[in-house]
Model the fold of this input.
Amino acid sequence: MDTVPYAFVDFVTELLTHWSIGELVNIRAWTEIAQVHKQERRSYGINFWCTEQGVQGAFIRAYSGPSPYLNVKEVLKTERRFLRIWHFANTESIKPPRDQKRLLTFKYDQLAKLEKFIVSHSYAHLSVYNKKLQPSLLNAFFRKVYFTAGISLTNNCPLAADFVKDQMEHSTTLLHVNLRKKWDPSMLPYIKKFCLRPNVMLFRSASVEFTLDVPFVQELMDVWRTDGEFKRIVHFARTPEIAEYMKSIMQQDGAQYVLIDKAARKVAHYTEESDQAHFSLHGYSRCYLCPPSVLLTISSS
Done:
């Protein structure tokens, strides 16, 4: 059992969309491997601290253990066979305490020195909006790392659109794409293709901020029904025309979805009043009051 490559176990668990092998296959050898994998795998996140002056540094954030933030040298002492970087994000609110400046682990201009380490251990989430940080990370990840859970980006560099298209086309387990602020409408066909692509057990979804019209939404619904994959749609109504169109299909084809207008956003999160804004599938729950300025969220089984 000790000779089983962790990369292989990672691949299998990712293929099964993050469900542990033990929950799906009742074979003792596999369940033992899954248990070892769960116990030994060490997950970290990298938070880039950004200010108006640019990227000041980064923290290595541990998802388990007594201390949430670690020095990068301490992390590198961990056997790399068991280490994964779960999440990349930039932040303006988290900064090192005055007495813990050592946690400012590396500067922006030193990012290239860690590029090989970052690329070889990246895994699930990418959420980067900073204009100075985004080009460096996207260039490092482009066609080398395919995220398995979700990517959330603004269109802050020339590579951003190509990066998102490549992720949607080639990542076998990518579940969600969140495009914030201004993107070219030419992205819409790629988003539609991504959401309609079959996935194992979980649904794919995309959040966009484009100004959508009824013909596009209607086309998507027609394709969905024709392919037999029309299962659910969650829509934040922003125009009366689209809202009326969505209401007109509420009773058709057994569609399951939640229709929310701007007024619903005033409802408190995760309360009885917001039950209609929650959707749960196989234990995965999401609050659809949270995404800002989302015009349309589409998902497919």
